[in-house]
Every structure is written in C-alpha cells, then in structure tokens.
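We store chain and fold; thus.
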Amino acid sequence: MIPGSPSDPSAMYPSLSTFKPCDLPTLLNSLQPIAPLLDTLADVVFFIKDREARYAFVNQTLARRCGFKHREDLLGLTAEMVFPERFGPLYTEQDRRVLSSGREMADQLELHLYYGNQPIWCLTHKLALKDEQGHIVGLAGISRDLQSPQSNHPAFQKLAAVDAHIRSHFARPISLAELTAIAGYSVAQLERHCKRVFQLTPRQMINKARLDEGSRLLLHSDLPITEIALRCGYTDHSAFSRQFRALTGLSPSQYRDTQR
C-alpha cells in the first residue's frame, strides 16, 4: 500500500489533531448534511466558533439548554451573550485562550449552568482549528454530560468500593495509594478503569465529590465559606475557592448568590 494513496486509511481518516480545513466556511458547509444527526445527541453539546469566539455552528442540544428554540438563533453570538451573566464572560475567556494559544483542552471537568440555572456536570474538550498555513481560524468544542457508571463493566464492583470510599472520606486527604489498595489495582489500572466506568480519573472523582458537597452546602446552608471548605476536605478558604472557580467559573460566594 502506498502511503497517502486513496487506499491508505490514514489518508482517508485523518485525526482531529492533524485535520486542517481550508477555511471555516468550507468546514461549516461540510457539516450541514450531518447536522440533524448531531441534533439527536441529547447529552452532548457540540459547537464550532470563529476566530472571534462567536458561534458559527451549534447542535440543537446547546440551543435548547441556552433557552433558544432554533440553533440558528445562536449564530454570531458569544458565550457571554448566551449564558447566565456570571458564567458567559468566563466561557468566552476560555475560548479566547484556546484561540490565542492553539492548545487543546481535553476532558476538563466542569459544572455548567445553562438557561434556568440548571447545573450539569460535563467533560469539555476544545480544539483549535487551523487552515492549510497553520493559522487558527476557529475552534471546535464538545461538552458531554457525565453518564451513570457502567455497572456491567467487570471492574465495577471494585470501583464502586473506591467511589464509596471517596464519598465517605473526602473531608480528609485521600491518596492514590489507599484507592489502589481498595481496588487491588496498580495506579495505571485504576486510572484506566475509572475512566472507563465513571468517565473520570480518580483525582477528578475526589474533586467532584468535594464540589458536590460544597455546592450543596452553599445552597442549603448559611455556613461560612471557610467552614464549608474545611468540611469538604480543603485546608483553607482560598484552596476551596481556587478549586471551585476552576470547575464552575465562579467563586463560592458568587455561586451562592447566583443560585439564591
């Protein structure tokens, strides 16, 4: 087989990391035939943005979650024009970092608030799009809702014990060593199986358990943020705030104010 020939699979199916559209309009036109298929993905948000971080293509799931009837209504808008006031500018800034640096953002665990302030845990992936000269012309992104664990996976019972341990002990430091001891796996095996069953790394599982409890206490108690931080396994207010902002885009106090 001759590399690069029509029968060469690598020529027929280039990876996303090497795919370089000639220009953004060409890429957008090529997506139109499969747009109805992308609209059926109820738990996946898909979008393409131009060089100015404006929506150039979205699926219906994103439009619906942002309170729009038609996906065309989002075109030309930025995230800060679409999402709740405290979230939109942060999402746009994230887009601009990808557009300016060209760095891929992979499996970023985030707590998204869509229209109506409905919180949804997602894994977000963003990729800069380049033309044939290597110039960045836009970005493509996908955010998929965290799914229920795969209970039919052979490792599920062991990993369920790991998850239960995390949820029972997140108020203190948790090491990978104790998690591997519970599961009976090496670190590499634990990482691989957790990604398959929970779609998260062990560290992301710990962070999510802490932030689940932190967001619950912020909404349903009047506890000081420092006290909430300590109850969720953080050494101080600032450590909790940094992690909370990294996953939600808001400080704990902003999140509390937004949801009340």
About this structure: The longest strand covers residues 119-130. The longest helix spans residues 202-220. The chain has twelve helices and five strands.
